[in-house]
Amino acid sequence: MSLDETMRSTSAGPPALLVTKLHPPRPRDQTVNRGRLLEALQHQAGVKLILVAAPAGCGKSTLLGSWHQAEARRRAIGWLTLDERDNDPVVLWSYVLESLRQICPSLGPIAPPELVGAAGIVDVTLPQLVNQLASQGETALVFDDFHRLSAGPARDSVAWLIEHGPPSFQTVLSSRTEPSLPLARLRARGELVEMRAKDLAFTADEADTLMNGHLQLDLSHSEVDDLTGQTEGWAAGLYLAALSLRGSADRQELLRKFDGSNRHVVDFLVDEVLATHDAATQDLMLRSSILERFCGPLLDAVIDGEGSGASLTTISRTNLFLLPLDDRGEWYRFHHLFARLLRMELEQRQPGLASTLHHRAYVWFRDQGLLDDAVEHALGAAAFAEAGDLIAAAWGHYANSARNATVLTWLQRLPRHVVLENSNLLLVEAWVQTMSANRAEAAAAIAAVEERGGLAAGPLPDGFRSLEASLATLKGCMHWGDVSVGHENAVRASELVEPDSPWRSNVSWAVGAGHYNWGRLGEADPWFEEAAALAPPSEQWIIAASSLAYRSLIAGELGQLEKQALLAEEAVTLAQDHNLEEIDGEVHVALGMSLVADGNFSEALPLLQRGVAVLRSWGQPTELANAEIYLASALRAAGERSAAEVATADARNTVDACPDPAFLRDRVHALERSSVVRSGPGTADLSKREIAVLRLLRGSLSERDIGRELHLSHNTVHSHTRSIFRKLGVSTRADAVRRGRELHLV
């Protein structure tokens, strides 16, 4: 397995996945067959969770690896070895889906975590996954090292899967600590099988199989019994004793002083286990301990030497704590307990060397383009400037795959003064906090950038020409309902961001949205058209789909029904092709309103409701208010007056939460008046000029074109249109024409 195969993405999109995390531990020649434990773990109907919880070194992973090998003959079983980076829910569930797809190739489309984001995983991705698993037959998934998930969204999402998984699916966890899961409820319902340290302890017979059967140490029964008693059956203690006994000249003396308890393992490791190796091998083992996983070329770079690959192959033949991670013997890791002991001894023997080793690892991973590991080792080396440079350059890649939690964690691990003294990092924080819907934190970061000044500085490593360009784009795209401020910043960004910039499509979308929210549809459409054209080359698929959706809505408002339908279909197709259906709510709104124009309310209303639900999760009130207004108008047109009043009230609440909702305020006011108008005598007090404008609203003319037809200014036509909407109690051009026909005005 090559470096590229092992370390890079297993799919077309981010995040990059380490395929070695998806493989259970390979069985070793020395592995003891623990039939009594495997029998206890055999599949039982109704069991949702198998939990193996015990301290380090008790053999949890080895046991589950053997169980996986035996059980996989009768059902599909996935595997995932967890690490701290999986605390980002997007990373965690990207791995889970990849693991399940490897064992269930017929799994259908599931909303990718990198598109729905952390907030959408439980609401969107997991329900789809559960529905798919229900048709896959008997399946299971092992989460090894579950203790490495700290309390938070990632762990909570696993709890959700355990609770809601289909009866045919089983979750299996190994953990050093008691997991924060509803174990009592599962236990009471008979849905839990659990195994603890006392269950995992080696019996004397199992210890004899290891020592004499596999390792051929030729110990007496009493010696094996003594070792088993001294270690209390602790697997790691027995393995350490075996490593030492192999190279010991005085076995009796070693057995006499071996304690086997956790308290004395470090001393024993130093005095006996490491001492059985030559100085060069000891040094290799100690220095490799700073790595989560390693191969020959990586280790050569870290130790600043050669021949590490051959040394690893040799060590793996005798050291039971060096675990191969692939079938070709290229990638390895030390057992976590053993690695921790090695790191402690490294610091004792060569204080401060770990920082140098981390820096070498950072350089190697950086040169390989493996940014996750590069940042981790830069932080481990306290190379905060280098870590900051990587984060500032790569944050957009992570944000585009919704890995905001990863970026925020990195920023939090930097000393705070490093972030506060770096405008690039403050801007990264502002962007990622905004995209995570953390409004207060985003505002604080923006204020810090502005307070530092020097906004003309640039170019930035993420592709922006200047700090001001990035800041204006951010404020233009996500303005928390202040349309005037958003539009002002979007227009400024359009002056600062070059046409060939990868950020230009975002800017064009923001300018278009500003015009749209002010009711200037003819001016909005060209900007959305530009955004839709520029977005695909930079893989900004959400921008592309949203822009097409808005163009469809504009066409509908202008009475261009054929164009409205074509653009809506194009937006939906693009969203489906890129798994955006549960992310881009405007697509559902556009298709829904296209169906409304055809009078197809039965299909339109569910789409509009779905669009509102998706947009609610984004935290940006103007987009949500726009969708709620369309939903309310469609419900009224369909005659569902009670539901329309509820939707109108929702729209009013959303609009009132906006500092400056612009034309949305007029639109929701028209909705509120529409119930009064519709229950009246069937007339409307329109002026002759307003009736003339209304009649021209039936066609495809823009407001500016209507002005030319009637020899009026664009602003006058716009004012007449708003008055027409208000008097007729409608919020869209199509509804105005429909209401005009009902009143025999057109």
Summarize the structure.
The protein is mainly alpha-helical. It contains 39 helices and 7 strands.
Please explain how this structure is put together.
This protein has 746 residues and is mainly alpha-helical. It folds into 6 domains: 3-200, 3-Layer(aba) Sandwich (Rossmann fold), CATH 3.40.50.300; 204-276, no CATH class; 279-351; 386-463; 469-670, Tetratricopeptide repeat domain (Serine Threonine Protein Phosphatase 5, Tetratricopeptide repeat, Alpha Horseshoe); 688-742, Winged helix-like DNA-binding domain superfamily/Winged helix DNA-binding domain (Arc Repressor Mutant, subunit A). Helices cover 62% and strands 5% of the residues. The protein is built from 39 helices and 7 strands. The strands form 2 sheets. It has a 5-stranded parallel sheet, sandwiched between helices. The chain has a two-stranded antiparallel sheet with strand order 6-7. The longest helix has 21 residues, at 113-133. It is elongated and about 110 Å long. Residues 1-14 and 677-683 have low confidence and may be disordered.
